């Protein structure tokens, strides 16, 4: 089911990092134009490999991000809560979805399409730039987390294989 956030929605958007730095007028326009989606638990927003030209902001609820291994084993790689956003990679790089996202609890999402971003670009270049910069900052933060996890994994593997054998 698709709804609009409505008049009070600009206050809600102000609390979300994606919209940080945007003015009242832009927030009001977005809250009146972006679709809101309500999902029950178990609903899949999109699947790994799907094409997509939209991203989502989690207003309420909880989502899980699942990644499939080459052996077709699905692993939870993240849990998202209110204020988090996802799906932005498909808007930026136009490649298939890199993961599956599924509702864990009843959830409300805001849908932001490539068309919505293009409209913002044409109306207000400053607001568009701030929004894209906010996306880039979050992607940079996520990359740092992944770098740290990878470093720990590699260090643990090296320790395991270079440790002297105590059994023999």
Automatic annotation (TrEMBL):
Topology in the lipid bilayer: Multi-pass membrane protein
Transmembrane feature ranges: none
Keyword Zinc-finger: no
Top-level taxon: Bacteria
Localization, UniProt: Membrane
Gene3D superfamilies linked to this entry: Jelly Rolls
SMART domains: cNMP (SM00100)
Keyword presence, Electron transport: no
Segments forming domain Cyclic nucleotide-binding: 18-120
Alphabetical keyword list: Ion channel, Ion transport, Ligand-gated ion channel, Membrane, Transmembrane, Transmembrane helix, Transport
Protein name per the record: Cyclic nucleotide-binding domain-containing protein
């Amino acid at each position: 089911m698709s709804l609009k956030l409505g008049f009070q929605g600009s206050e809600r958007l102000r609390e979300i990092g994606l919209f940080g730095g945007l003015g009242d007028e832009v927030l009001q326009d977005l809250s009146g134009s972006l679709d809101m989606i309500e999902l029950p638990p178990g609903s899949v927003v999109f699947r790994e490999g799907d094409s997509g030209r939209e991203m989502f902001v989690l207003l309420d609820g909880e989502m899980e991000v699942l990644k499939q291994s080459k052996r077709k084993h699905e692993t939870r790689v993240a849990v998202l809560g209110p204020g988090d956003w996802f799906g932005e990679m498909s808007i930026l790089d136009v490649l298939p979805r890199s993961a599956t996202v599924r509702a864990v609890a009843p959830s409300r999402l805001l849908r932001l399409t490539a068309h919505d971003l293009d409209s913002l670009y044409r109306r207000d270049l400053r607001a568009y730039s701030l929004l894209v910069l906010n996306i880039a900052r979050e992607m940079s933060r996520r990359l740092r987390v992944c770098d740290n996890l990878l470093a720990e994994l590699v260090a643990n593997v090296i320790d395991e294989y270079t440790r002297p054998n105590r059994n023999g």
